Amino acid sequence: xxxxxxxxxxxxxxIARTGVMFLTAAALLAIxxxxxxxxxxxxxxxxxxxxxxxxxxxxLKRLWGLDQSLLLxxxxxxxxxxRLDFGVSFYRNVPVQxxxxxxxxxxxxxxxxxxxxANLLGMALGVVSIARRHRxxxxxxxxxxxxxxxxxxxxxxxxFLLIFAYHLEWFPLGGMHRVGAVYSTFWQxxxxxxxxxxxxxPTLVAGIFYFTTPFFVMxxxxxxxxxxxxxxxxxxxxxxxxxxxxxxxxxxxxNPVITTTAxxxxxxxxxxxxxxxxxxxxxLGSELVFSTFRRDYPVVQAIFFLISLTVIxxxxxxxxxxxxLDPRLRYxxxx
Amino acid sequence: xLRQAKIILVATLVLLxxxxxxxxxxxxxxxxxxxxxxxxxxxxxxxxSVAFWEASQIAMDTWNKELGTxxxxxxxxxxxxxxxxxxxxxxxxxxxxxxxxxxxxxxFLFNTFFYASCPGFxxxxxxxxxxxxxxxxxxxxxxxxxxxxxxxxxxQIFDYAERKKITxxxxxxxxxxxPVLVLFSPYVVHLMNTKRWQNEKAMPGEGLGSAWNVxxxxxxxxxxxxxxxxxxxxxSINPMAVTRTQGYRVMDLLYDTLFRVDLEGKAVKWxxxxxxxxxxxxxxxxxxxxxxxxxxxxxxxxxxxxxxVLFTVDFARKFKAPDLYNYVKxxxxxxKTGDLSLTLHLSEPWSGVFxxxxxxxYILPEHIWSKVAQEEKExxxxxxxxxxxSGPFKFVSWDKGAQLVMDRNPDYFAPxxxxxxxxxxxxxxxxxxxxxxxxxIDLQWGEPMNAAIxxxxxxxxxxxxxxxxxxxxxMFTFRCVKxxxxxxxxxxxxxxxLPRDLIMKRVYPGLAQTAVSPIPPGNKAWHNPRVFDLAKxxxxxxxxxxxxxxxxxxxxxxxxxxxR
Lengths: 335, 564
Known about the structure:
heterodimer, A: 335 residues, mainly alpha, MetI-like fold, 75% helix, globular, B: 564 residues, alpha+beta, 6-stranded mixed β-sheet, 18 helices
């Protein structure tokens, strides 16, 4: 790092940026805690059963800490969080980690697969559209990209489910594994053909939506670099048009694509509520909706915290990567 | 001078006329102020239940048009609807009462929904002016001393015929007093794929979701894995913390109870081989002597003994098991009379004990839960990661929010047909129905299938819609401690003007039974058919006549006004 950047600049930037990251995380923690409690409604109305005597209701409120003042509740929440204890789910009566962690991995598997193919395809199609500039294929790709971006995910999801799962029966109707499959280890659970079979349709639907961002960003960025002066020299040296496009234009155009990809990965942890719901994918997004409706504060807080933390960290990493990739920022810092 | 006097006279007359006119105006205003004010009709959002949204719209439109009332919809999220009803902070609203097994017992039902020890009852303590308390779900705040007397009397009678006479009268009182207007009782409709399983055993209120069906349904071939789907998530697998119907369905399979509610809705001996009501130190019929079956074993091979039952009673009382505490505290003493026999002493005779407590109290293995009681900070919140019960199925795995897997208990004393049971959670009725159609799921549990899907599935090969009577019911509830609902005449007029048939035809075409009392025909053992004669037929003219005779009037805009 020292060789790439003046050390003083790097240290100053890192300290400031890390400080901002922690401050943002702390602010988010407080905001999300109080926001849910300020929402109209009483969590006990949905969690506690009406059939219970007032005596038992009071006892359960005590057990869940809902009888304390908001500040005390916040204090114990932060205390527990520092020990990585997210509390007990009101609805399921199990530690929050047991609900959230498996779903976190399910979402990661689903969204990473979708984002991976969406980004690769998006970048590749971006290059193809520039290579076929002013030809029918370019127009076709732009129309396809616009339609994919504009079509709501629930529409694409339902259509794919209806055609490929319900009518053609090529894929299952949803879920992550076949009904009744039991896997005892992490490896067995995530590395098997059954999962791949269930993964194809939801990732296809999510990917159709997400490929458009890298496609348009790549295209726009390549258009900016298409007439760079240095390309004249490269062409004069006898490089083929394909080599010019791929090695000298596309490579230079990658920076903004990488940044948007990093940011979208952060948001991906939140899952895709719509796709997860349509395809019954047991991920964080669908759990968030479920727990919000039931005012299951500990679970909702844990999921929000996880999502916001990932977004904050990915933003932080994107800033650092950008510093390395874009020399102009280094000059800004030095001034 | 004379002219001036004339002017003064005219001015005085004009002033007098204005004053008198003003007074008359005030009198008119006063008459207007007696108008029956706007009433808020509390409902869930349309998306929560289209059926109940429509039912309330039809009723409000009819009442407003025919009677000149001003009912307006007040939409709240479901948990807020319930909260407002708990707190008595509402005028009227619509509710669906699910048909859980415990609600088959009339004593439990009447006590929960219509008991208040004094007037001014609210469920929540801070607003409650009635120190003696009342039923947890007495949303109307209904209070009737005669009803309370009968409630107590039926509680002490163990003879079915004698008890039914009393509960019949109580059902009639609810129909006549109208704290609620029961609309209809929807059938429980569950879908089933007949490719692998046959001869389903359906239970009132629970449809295909009862333990009887899961144990008794017969396989057609070698595949003995029963796959069931539900839109409800499994809430908890701790038998002491369970509070929801969907939780009880799972607990009924993993754990066992001394009695079980059978397919007819009666509590029958199950873990108890013999049970006898005798006299005890607290009076006549206050002791329940129980002998356990000798062939009961927990899933880890340990024998079930009287000690386990005594431990369970003690645990539920000591740690205030949410749904049991109210009932288990009526057992003042539990004593062991042998390795497999015990006596439960009640504070007073209680005929509902078999149905309400002994069919609901899952017997815990003392050798496991005694450690929980000692070591856990809050034993009632113990997650129970690997449940060990003595029920017909053994726990295998629980992928929270997705699927629960259980295997047949080979040591169980009763026949159990499926070798494995897989319960899968679905996000919507549409995907669940498609999974049944494709055979990914064998049958449906929980929330009844909606009418449109049932219609679409008609004629599909291997898909069967099992339609069963229910003891759950839909009702309009009125906060009857305040005007205008505290006036029997007003309530009578509302009933005369309630188009029950139209509502049923529109919202549940062919999928509901007529019901007018909280014990609908689906509860065969306790239904009183005479209540149909007491309910008022739809007759708007008669409704206006009843109001008119009682002194109600209508202003020049046709709006209903209270009697002067």
